[in-house]
Amino acid sequence: MWDIVFQIISTATTGLLVGYLWGMSKRGSHQERDHVCSHDLKQCLRAEESLRESQRTLATLMSNLPGIVYRCKNDPDWTMEFISEGCYPLTGYLPADLMGNRTVSYAQLIHLDDCNLVWNEIQVALQEHRSFQLTYRII
Q1: What's the CA gap between 5 and 56, in Å, rounded?
Q2: Mode of pairing for the β-strands spanning 30-36 and 70-72
Q3: What is the predicted pLDDT for the residue at 7?
Q4: Are 108 and 136 in contact (CB under 8 A)?
Q5: HSE-up of 137 (CA within 13 Å, CB side)?
Q6: Do 83 and 98 touch, CB atoms closer than 8 A?
Q7: Which residues contact 100 (CB under 8 A, 6 or more apart)?
């Protein structure tokens, strides 16, 4: 028996299987092909379109917020994994400058007198599995 797998990779879901699995088996003296559909392609295409629409909606919402939407690592640099365009008016840095500490880390923007307070308050909130709200200075 041979198993042959074909994958259709979509640009919207790179790295995810969004197509069909084909199996080829040999029985006796002849070959039989068995088509095994792992995903309905139409369903996948609808899901991709829904994802694109959600991403457009989120991008529009974030571009209209007066502030920063971000995701960062819980490390001493507050290494940014995502940061919205709103960071430029507040910090003077483009998102690309802060992503992965490319030009500057977010921690370098926090006023030196506030660094320990920010770190400690966030660590306590994380340990207690609760949200947090802080006011601190950036330079």
Answers
A1: 34
A2: unpaired
A3: 42
A4: no
A5: 5
A6: yes
A7: 79, 80, 81
Task: Judge contact between 5 and 21, C-beta under 8 A.
Answer: yes
DSSP per-residue codes, 71-97: EE-SSTT--EEEE-TTHHHHHS--HHH
Check if the beta carbon of residue 73 is closer than 8 Å to that of residue 92: no
pTM of the model: 0.61
Look over the chain and give the mean of its residue pLDDT values, rounded to a whole number: 77
Which element (helix H / strand E) includes 117?
Answer: helix 115-127
Residue 126 confidence (pLDDT) above 80: yes
pLDDT digits (tens, 9 = 90+) for 13-67: 444 444 443 444 444 444 444 444 444 677 777 888 888 888 888 888 777 777 8
For residues 137 and 115, the answer to whether their CB atoms sit within 8 Å is: no
Quote the tokens at residue 77: 């640099």
**Token pair for residue 31?**
């070959």
User: Which residue reads 């007066």 in tokens?
Assistant: 66
Arithmetic mean of pLDDT, 72-95: 93
The count of residues in the chain is: 139
